[in-house]
Amino acid sequence: MDWSSKTMGVLERIMFLSVLNVLWLMGVAAGLGIFGLFPATFALFKLFGQQELFETQSPIKPIFKAFWLHYRACFLKANGIGLVYAAVLFSIGIDKNIVQLYEPWGSVLLVPLNLLSIYVLLTLAFLIPIDIHTEGSTREKMKLALLAPVLMPKASALIVLVGIGSVILADVFAAGIFLFYVSLAILLLNKISLKSMYQKSVIVERALA
């Protein structure tokens, strides 16, 4: 493969990421923000499992169609999960505000609460691909997601780094959120979690090359 072909391949990947980013933003807007966030994110995770949609010179129309299909299919379930996590994180936030009133112990108590927040977000990062790519009841999938940060520490560390990197990029160049930041972050989270689950035999086949 010559240099020009490699360049075209990179540009096509960037184009696909930009298209998916736009779809994610449209999905969030379609759900009036809060009710579109989780369905749009679930739909993007699902799309990354359909590798055939992103072959060289693939038409864009099937990607749009597949996204909205997944978006509608998971709308209620994704929002149910989102509401649970929002409630948990909200309660942790209230606890943080309360302990800050009690110095000097408040600063000490903030450490476990911050770690708990990170753990909750990690379980969410694992739960979405677990829900999409594994069999079993919702309860079984939740149990697996709760154990995943402990069972897969390397993947957990990488997910945290992706999160930190995304926040830094958004702070330095906020407009990137409208270009490809979100789709790139979801792509990386999907690859990291699926690779780790494959190695741990949580899934028996690779869902993403």
What can you tell me about this protein's structure?
With 209 residues, the protein is mainly alpha-helical. The protein has helices at 3-30, 34-48, 61-73, 75-99, 105-133, 138-151, 153-172, 181-199. The protein is globular.
Give a quick rundown of the structure.
The protein is mainly alpha-helical and 209 residues long. Helix content is 78%, strand content 0%.
Number of helices: 8
Summing up helix and strand content along with how strands pair, one would put the structural category as mainly alpha
- Give Rg in angstroms: 18 Å
Q: How far apart, in Å, are the first and last alpha carbons?
A: 20 Å
Order of helices and strands: HHHHHHHH
Low-confidence stretches: none
The major sheet is characterized as: none
How many beta-strand segments? Answer: 0
Percentage of residues in helical conformation: over 70%
Q: Which percent band covers the strand fraction? A: under 5%
| Rough outline | globular
Mean pLDDT: 84
